[in-house]
Backbone:
């Protein structure tokens, strides 16, 4: 009885630690997959007017199992190469000719309305969510300087269940890819 009283708390703490680490790993893998899938969407959508809308839809779909309310921000940014990090000013605001910063509320904004007409939310118009770094301005030609690199940064909050390790932790992931090249002729 005395041995059980001494070992049980340690055993329970060990089990909770394994459980919490498993959930943290799941959250990390989810945000990594969301960033990667969104970057691939960005590469394929390239300079389409729907590019950022499609990127956000991809993030929303990938992050749904973890809970969209935990996604803090999504940044689509112009990168110089595959190893670039998100520019610090882009974490707080969209920056002209550099990045667009989004929340999951932006993912709920429709691209077209009920009648099939394009809404002012997207399409690089003044006041649209994607006007700072307009998808239409992204370079995809292989005849000039080459295609742009685009990065997708996703930041989410992981909430611990037991509180033994802490209450929450911020997880983020950045994926940078080159836009699909297109020859101009």
Residues:
């Amino acid at each position: 009885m005395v041995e059980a009283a001494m070992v049980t708390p340690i055993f329970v703490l060990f089990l909770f630690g394994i459980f919490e680490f498993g959930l943290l790993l799941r959250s990390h893998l989810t945000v990594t997959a969301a960033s990667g899938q969104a970057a691939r969407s960005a590469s394929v959508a390239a300079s389409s007017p729907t590019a950022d809308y499609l990127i956000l839809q991809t993030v929303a779909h990938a992050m749904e199992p973890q809970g969209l309310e935990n996604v803090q921000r999504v940044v689509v940014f112009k990168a110089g190469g595959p190893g670039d990090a998100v520019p610090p000013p882009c974490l707080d605001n969209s920056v002209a000719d550099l990045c667009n910063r989004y929340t999951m509320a932006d993912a709920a904004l429709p691209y077209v309305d009920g009648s099939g007409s394009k809404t002012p939310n997207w399409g690089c118009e003044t006041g649209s969510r994607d006007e700072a770094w307009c998808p239409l301005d992204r370079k995809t030609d292989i005849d000039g300087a080459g295609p742009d690199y685009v990065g997708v940064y996703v930041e989410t909050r992981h909430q611990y269940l037991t509180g033994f390790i802490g209450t929450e932790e911020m997880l983020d992931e950045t994926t940078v890819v080159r836009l699909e090249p297109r020859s101009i002729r």
